[in-house]
Model the fold of this input.
Amino acid sequence: MPSKKTQIQKQLVAYSFIAPNFIGFAVFTLVPIVFAVALAFLHWDGSNPITWAGLSNFTDLLDDDQFKAALKNTIVYTLGTVPLTLISSLFLAVVLNQGVKGRNFFRTVSFFPYVASLVAVAAVWNMIFNPSKGPVNLFLYKLGFENVPGWAADKHWAMITIILFSVWKYMGYYMIIYLAGLQGINPELYEAANLDGTNAWQRFIYVTVPQLRPATFFVMVMLTIQCFKVYDIVYMVTQGGPGTATLVLVYDIYNKAFVSWNLGSASAVAMVLFFLVLTVTLIQFRGEKNMR
Amino acid sequence: MQITSKQTKTNTVILYALLFFCALIMLVPFAWMLSASVKLDKDVFGFPIKWIPDDIRWENYQEIWTTIPLLQFIKNTAKLTIIVTFLQLLTSSFAAYAFAKLQFKGRNLLFLGYIATIAMPWHVYMVPQFIMMRYFHLNNTHLSIIFLQAFSAFGVFLMKQFYEGVPDELCEAARIDGMNEYRIWAQIMLPLSKPALSTLTIFTFVNTWNDFLGPLLYLTKMELKTVQIGLRMFISQYSSEYGLIMAASVVSLIPVIIVFLALQKFFVQGVATAGLKG
Done:
């Protein structure tokens, strides 16, 4: 029977393990989160006295064109990026999983866009897709197209440009998840399908796709959350423009907080963002339960 | 029989053609970056693309160091990245050991604190966090970025998952041998957790090195800036110095690419396990 003193000592040892991380985490993450929730119900410009706002920060959003554009654009961006990234990463993974030579090389290469810093690759992307002198448009001219897209400079093409860039940047990452999923599929399933005389496409549709359901579900959730939080890409490719064509939620938070110093309103938008992410996370939770 | 072998042959050709095409899409922007980085500004655009210019301008790689304080930016970023990664590894594995292997009051509650925030985007609380840092006079210090990045729920979570896979008997045996908990952590757990530590190293390194919005908010003084915001500033100020922009971009990519290539085996494993566990 351990004495009370050693019991207390044991607890203290445990707390000493937790403390360095937890204190930092509590001060710089937990406290700001609580603060963020409170701010959504207050008026504050960061220096003058704080006043109570009730729900007005939220009701004001209903008439806020910037917010409405940002919410719409975030959803459009998500609806465009998620399926495209999903399909391209799945495609890449299936191709790479065919026992090809140089597999490691290709895998490493497709990961480059993901690890490369956004500022650098966005700079290249902006030059390659430069509407008047970039190689992409010059190529399109050569092919005989006359109305070449204005890409980031055109309000109809700006969002498409950002979506294409995101797919290029992130597909390598999700490919890895799919590759791991593919390796988990029992080879006997393919052998059985082979005996039934199926072709490659049928095997893909009736064996690979259903077997990859958990991986697909995970990729979808991660991608959706990532799309809701998009900021850097937009900042570097279009700065939210032209007009409000690519203004997204985090951009709106940034503008409301650090340009107009309307902290309550910024926090209200942040709560909307949180609500979106929370919904998707809860769906993931339930989905995972159902799959087991 | 012959037909099938012919079929497999065409299939293989198509397969490699597809792969080659994918690799091309992935690599062309990087090749273009390298090529443009040794060109005169007036030669950067031009079609058909001249991949290797007649007159290779290595001078671009000399000029970037004097046009912008690139070396200072790199030093700042390297300092931040190393400190953050070190603190992240140390404090996460330390906390994770207690969560995985020790019994104490409030264990579940404290861990719930981490779990609850793992899905919370930083952008949701970046505004109050900024106000708080400003109140502590931490804006325009490197400490702000360190505090911002060093204590993540992700790190604790990842390490705890790994430690739970280590048999309890190992720790019990060490305790009977008279080792205290700190020595068990240092001499048994740490050496065992190399794969998890490598994964965390890469994620933290890449995240901190490439972080943009954090430094953009907190570091406005020139001498404090990181590569990312420094480079971005350069791009918006000298938007037509294409050759220089590309040379600076190439330089900014080198450290991450090196770390990635050195540790990629662990990275792939890490992404895969994090993915499958969900």
